[in-house]
Design a protein that fits this description.
Layout lengths: L1 E2 L4 E7 L2 E7 L3 E7 L5 E8 L3 E6 L1 E3 L5 E3 L4 E11 L6 E11 L3 H18 L6 E6 L8 H15 L3 E6 L5 H8 L7 E6 L1 H19 L16 E6 L5 H7 L4 H9 L4 E10 L2 E6 L3 E4 H9 L9 H12 L3 E9 L11 E2 L5 H10 L3 E4 L5 E3 L14 E13 L23 E7 L3 H9 L13 E12 L6 H5 L28 H26 L13 E2 L2 E2 L5 E12 L7 H4 L14 E2 L2
Parallel strand pairs: 11-12, 11-13, 13-14, 19-28
Antiparallel strand pairs: 1-2, 2-3, 3-4, 4-5, 6-9, 7-8, 9-10, 15-16, 15-27, 17-22, 17-25, 18-22, 18-24, 20-21, 22-23, 23-24, 24-27, 25-26
The chain binds N-((E,2S,3R)-1,3-dihydroxyoctadec-4-EN-2-yl)palmitamide, adenosine-5'-triphosphate and calcium ion.
The site of adenosine-5'-triphosphate (ATP) has 20 residues, from helix 4.
């Protein structure tokens, strides 16, 4: 046996086979020995990927069962699986049971492995605040948490406070108002809507504490320290899929346990001097806005409501006039058509960290670099704005690829999670077959940007205005116009254009939300009476912001680079992870890692 503070080496048995096991600080490995004591196969696990070390013979599935013995210990670690065909890298719990020649040696192994875990995985969470939406997706949130997630947290020694939500926005309000001392992160069990609640809570809380106004689009917001974890249990699970590569509760739980940390760009959406919402995946006008508005009527269909509404909206063949202003990002750094993908360890994103936080002279407990000095008013609008005017089928802005099971490569396959930019996709009016081709290319290997009526720009900010006279004020005088939630009487006796906009920021934010919900319900009721196909074609659409309808047509969007951090690491490349057996052709045959 060889041992020092950071190293331990000895013979161990796994089943009937003898191994030489070595712990050298960062790695724990065991090598099969043959009868002549020659090395055969080696298994090596990074200490950062150990989930737990237990004395005795410990089974975990179907449930935890411990058989106390003097000479055994059981190691739980991350095990990767690739199903192939670009379906992503799944993580499961690996289990190896070791037998030692003596109790003393067993105790040394257990102590040394646990010490290594503490020393080399400092960013693991110890205490988490978990919000379960019992009604999200297929309503399986509670079951998913209690059967798959909670036992793993327990095994990893993570304590939790669990809140099963009873109303929308409860999780957001909890994070904004309650004492969060002692929590290392917040976790949602639900879909993109639940994630959005956590996002708004965490960003809002951080800005409150920093004394910054979310309403001013020129303010450099304070990056958030509290990590967000997502256990997918929703309809689309786009944020989970685009940051992990799969929507699998166990994979996500294991990323949370090991304290993975993925920075994420966030887009703030403003209307005049009012903050409206944050988005990470889609700020969409036209098709995606209409699909969301339509889908509200079919909530009872569950996740299928989007496909059904998608068909209805497609058949209604609408397009909308408007003017789009955008601030291009530096085209030297990357481009939405450079055929690269943002994978775990992406160079474009890590170089962006240095660019976004140039005076990074402190390191947080999570190991991420933070600037100690933020310039709250350094101009975010440097550069020349460009303008595109016309009639659009859809306008989409996405801070990341927005890949999801419906679209395995997403709205913008080469977008980056944390480069401080978003991709603006403009789809001009075209014949239905052209638009169908565009949509269909989201599901196959063809380039959806290689169409004459589609353009894509990498941007830092975007502004949209509907044609003059077609804004909210105009809509209010035209009860038949439909299309925008602001056209509806929300029963409050106030309007965006005519109401009092001088209230407190908090009051205004509350009213924005109220209007969104009320407007959506009214619109759904009207649509039910009319039907989408016989309706007069509206002149304005509605904005879809990560699955929420916005009550304003005229908006300004600004990208805030790496504003939040998720317990994730980006999408792992199957080609690299699974020993090259799958090949790069799985990614549309045209995507390469950005180096
Ligand atoms: C011919 C097949 C075409 C398939 C086209 C698939 C395009 C899929 C693009 C997915 C983009 C997801 C963006 C993520 C948005 C999330 O932040 C948000 C919150 O969860 N989800 C939605 O707003 C929910 C939006 C959901 C949008 C789904 C659109 C489905 C369209 C189906 C169109 C069928 C046309 C068929 C005509 C015969
Ligand atoms: N207890 C609750 N009752 C009603 N609504 C809730 C509750 N808890 C959360 N919500 C809201 O439900 C919405 C949808 O939830 P969630 O995202 O989990 O599921 P989803 O069906 O997948 O929706 P999405 O289409 O947004 O992915 C969220 O916007 C959230 O604010
Ligand atoms: Ca980005």
């Amino acid at each position: 046996m060889d041992t020092d503070a950071h190293r331990l080496e000895s013979s161990l048995w796994v089943g009937r086979k003898r191994y030489r096991a070595v712990l050298n600080g960062w790695h724990f490995s065991w090598t099969l020995l043959d009868k002549q004591n020659r090395d055969r196969k080696t298994v090596s696990v990074p200490v950062s990927e150990l989930i737990g070390v237990e004395e005795g013979q410990v089974e975990f599935q179907p449930q935890k069962k411990v058989t106390e013995t003097d000479r055994d210990f059981t190691v739980f670690s991350i095990k990767r699986h690739c199903k192939g065909g670009g379906s992503g890298v799944f993580w499961t719990l690996g289990r190896t049971q070791f037998y030692c020649p003596s109790r003393d040696l067993r105790d040394r192994w257990v102590t040394q492995l646990r010490n290594a875990l503490k020393t080399h995985s400092p960013s693991r969470p110890h205490r988490l605040l978990v919000f379960i939406n019992p009604f999200g997706g297929k309503k399986r949130g509670r079951k998913i948490y209690h059967s798959l997630v909670a036992p793993l947290f327990e095994l990893a020694g993570i304590s939790t406070h669990v809140v099963v939500t009873e109303r929308a926005n409860q999780a957001r309000d909890h994070i904004l108002k309650k004492d969060l001392t002692g929590f290392d992160g917040v976790v949602c069990v639900g879909g993109d809507g639940m994630f959005s609640e956590l996002l708004h809570g965490v960003i809002g809380r951080t800005q409150q504490e920093a004394g910054l106004s979310e309403h001013d689009p020129t303010v450099t917001l304070q990056p958030c320290d509290l990590h967000i974890g997502i256990i997918p249990a929703g309809s689309t699970d786009c944020v989970c899929f685009a940051t992990v590569g799969v929507n699998d509760p166990v994979t996500s739980t294991l990323h949370i346990i090991i304290g993975d940390s993925q920075p994420l760009d966030v887009c703030s959406v403003h209307h005049t001097s009012l903050f409206v919402r944050y988005s990470v995946s889609l700020v969409g006008y036209g098709f995606y806005g209409d699909v969301l508005a339509e889908s509200e009527r079919y909530r009872w269909m569950g996740p299928l409501r989007y496909d059904f509404s998608g068909c209805m909206v497609f058949l209604s063949n609408r397009s909308y006039r408007g003017k789009v202003y955008f601030l291009p990002a530096d085209s030297q750094l990357s481009s939405p058509r450079d055929n690269t993908r943002c994978f775990a360890g992406c160079h474009v994103c890590s170089e962006s960290t240095e660019r976004l936080f140039p005076q990074s002279d402190s390191i947080s407990h999570t190991g991420f670099l933070y600037s100690t000095q933020y310039s709250q008013h350094s101009s975010p609008w440097e550069g020349e704005w460009e303008t595109v005017e016309g009639e659009f089928k859809c306008i989409s802005l996405t801070c990341m690829s927005s890949c999801c099971p419906r679209s395995p490569l997403g709205l913008s396959p080469s977008a980056h999670l944390a480069d401080g930019t978003a991709d603006l996709i403009l789809v001009r009016d075209t014949h239905p077959l052209g638009f169908l081709t565009y949509l269909h290319r989201h599901t196959n290997s063809q380039d959806q940007f290689d169409l004459p009526f589609v353009e894509v720009h990498r941007v830092k900010a975007v502004r949209f205005s509907p044609p003059p006279g077609e804004d909210e004020a105009e809509q209010l005088d035209d009860p038949d116009s439909g299309g925008t939630v602001m056209a509806e009487d929300d029963g409050q006796g106030e309007t965006a254009a005519g109401g009092d906009w001088t209230g407190s920021a908090q009051h205004l934010s509350a009213r924005v939300q109220e209007r969104g919900v009320v407007g959506t319900k009214k619109r759904a009721k009207r649509d039910f009476l009319c039907g989408p196909c016989c309706r007069r074609s509206p002149s304005v659409s509605v904005w879809n912001c990560d699955g929420e309808l916005l009550p304003f047509t005229e908006v300004l969007c600004r990208v805030h680079g790496q504003l939040v951090r998720l317990f994730a690491r980006g999408i792992e490349e199957e080609f690299v992870t699974c020993n090259g057996t799958l090949g790069k052709k799985n990614f549309k045959g045209r995507y390469i890692t950005h180096t």
